[in-house]
């Protein structure tokens, strides 16, 4: 893990602002190095805010979990609509390949519009789940446990959740 990744982790896990001086001591570098690292983290899209007491993340905390699902290509729309309609965000799709191991494709689907755009692209090619006869994982983020249970229940009712 790089120093910048560790800095981001420190800021994320703290309940109070983290000062550049505190981070500099922890990583045995100057305060200016930390300021530069934070600037690079911001350039990568991390929403770090500098307050008078230190750095905090602007983003609200979200929960994340992987779910195993199985369905046909024709059911992709229904599966993804179900997740976003229930308040979830689909980060990625993951399949297990016999030669390459775990293959992950970023999705970043938060709405029906995102689903529709994704489906237009999938019409031209086979989705990753084709490699595993429809079995795949999704990493889903959600604001609270109630939302996740709603998503899980809806996917179960539609027969999409995979059970070994």
UniProtKB/TrEMBL annotation:
GO terms for molecular function: metal ion binding. Residues 67-161 form the 3H domain. Residues 3-55 form the Helix-turn-helix type domain. Transmembrane segments: none annotated. Ni(2+) binds at residues 71, 79, 136, 138. InterPro entries: 3H_dom_sf (IPR035922), 3H_domain (IPR004173), HTH_11 (IPR013196), NadR (IPR026043), WH-like_DNA-bd_sf (IPR036388), WH_DNA-bd_sf (IPR036390). Pfam families: 3H, HTH_11. Keywords: Metal-binding, Nickel. This is Transcriptional regulator.
């Amino acid at each position: 893990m790089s120093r910048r990744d560790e800095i981001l982790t420190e800021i994320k896990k703290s309940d109070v602002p983290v000062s550049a001086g505190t981070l500099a001591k922890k990583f045995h570098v100057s305060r200016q190095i930390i300021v530069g690292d934070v600037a690079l983290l911001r350039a990568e899209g991390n929403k770090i805010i500098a307050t008078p007491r230190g750095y905090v993340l602007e983003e609200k905390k979200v929960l994340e979990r992987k779910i195993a699902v199985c369905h046909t290509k024709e059911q992709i729309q229904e599966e993804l609509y179900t997740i976003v309609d229930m308040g979830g965000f689909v980060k990625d799709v993951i399949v297990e390949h016999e030669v390459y191991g775990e293959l992950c494709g970023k999705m970043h689907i938060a709405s029906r519009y995102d689903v529709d755009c994704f489906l237009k692209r999938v019409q031209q090619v086979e989705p990753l789940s084709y490699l595993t006869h429809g079995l795949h994982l999704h990493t889903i983020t959600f604001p609270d446990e109630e939302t996740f249970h709603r998503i899980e229940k809806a996917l179960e009712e539609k027969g999409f959740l995979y059970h070994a």
